[in-house]
What we know:
Blueprint: H1 5-25, H2 27-39, H3 42-64
Helix pairs in contact: 1-2
Amino acid sequence: MSLEWSDLAGALALLLVIEGLLPFANPAGMKRTLARVAALGERELRIAGFATMLVGLVLLFFVRA
Length: 65
C-alpha cells in the first residue's frame, strides 16, 4: 500500500475542518480553553502534545492496518 500526495492533502484538509469546528460552534468556549492552555507550563504542554501524537499514531496504525 502506497501513500499518495492526495492522501496527505486530504488528511490536512480534514484536520483543518476538525480544528475549525470548536471555534465555529462555541467561540467563547474556545477562548476560555485557550486561556487555560496558555496558563499551563511547558512541561505539561509537552506531555499533552506527546500524548496526542501517540494517540494519533495508534489510530493511524489501526486505520491503515
